[in-house]
Task: structure prediction
Amino acid sequence: MRLVGYDSQIPLNSRYSFNYYSRSYVLIAIYFSFASIFEIVLTKSFQATPQQLSIIFTLATSANLISIFALRKVSSASRLKVLLVTISLGALSYCLLATTYFYKVAFFAITIMSIHYFANPVYLLCNTSFLREIYDKKFRGRLFSVTQSIGFLVSIVVSLTIPPLLDFYPNSYVFFFPIVGALAFFGIFRLQRMKLKPTAWKVREREPVFKTLFSVLNPREPFFYFEMFFMVYGFGFLMNLPVQLTFFEQELNLNYTDFGIAWILIPNLLLASLSFGFGRFFDRFDPFRVASIFFLILAFFNLFLYFSQNLTDVFIAKGIYGIAMSGVNLAWNLGPLYFAHDSESPERYISAHIFLTGVRGLVAPQLGISVADAFGLRETFFVCFLVLLVASLGMFVAYRKFVFQKEKQII
Result:
């Protein structure tokens, strides 16, 4: 297979953009992979309670509520500057984590990381819009999936090196996070030198904030149904996360190395292996079918976790999770662009998509902990299984309603 950056079928502008962006993204990917390391450190070193673990996932997702307001910045000509500011804020939070060496309290660490969590949705909104501008539509899924694979490969390296070191030196995280923050800043600063085509800097008319949301969430349009069943998926996904960390710590008593393998290595190994092929799959099919298939696989991950009895079972379950998220990740990131392909303001769809992630983030993680308190950790996985089944079925029904019928009319 030819290297993507040198594939002559891909337009020259897209190849240049891919080669330049991917080199900077290696350093940024290290930065994002350490967010998962923080979740493990909080569970192991800080002995965070299930309620505290739910807070970090609530913060990480509910922060996306600001995306609809950030649209005003992203719709202007300053995409690269916004990327620089957001990564710089996240890098600052990583540096401040060094102070937890002197005040090792879980809530204090969560407060520091909230800077990263609130900067992240603005980065996501801006970065998705940025990639839309620099990648040709015909090859967008392929190029995006390769870029993502770089991040997954970086996460694999991080998972093989950092958790084992933390087993021997639990407090060494106070050195790792500031170093990674500095690397991320260098990576995003380097990206400022990228030469973009002029159309990337077109200033778009600014809309009232909530007019943006309601204008794209029209019940007569397919995007409304895509987001409705993504909302259902999001509840099943987010309810699982704090419960899963608690399950690994309290029932299986995993050490840092095993945590790194289960939480980071196995999923990212499969994400890196499968994302390129699934990217080509996404280029050929609609996001309804892609989401329906991979929501179903994710449902069976929860079912397998429900029956897990030992570390081997967990590793197999996380393998299923990695396969599922290879497709879900593409549907989440590229789905809004599919519906916005004829729109002059794709950021409206992207910001609405991210905003709704924040809505479910306010409720779902704590709901997962509440279900676990009432019925048990394993029973929560079964509830998540049922929720994801509904999401998968809903996406398939939406495909039949909006895509299949249109294809039949064309034939």
Observations:
- DSSP finds 15 helices and no strands in the chain.
- Confidence is low (pLDDT under 50) at residues 198-203, 407-411.
- Residues 84 and 259 are 32 Å apart (CA to CA).
- Residues 377-410 form the longest helix (34 residues).
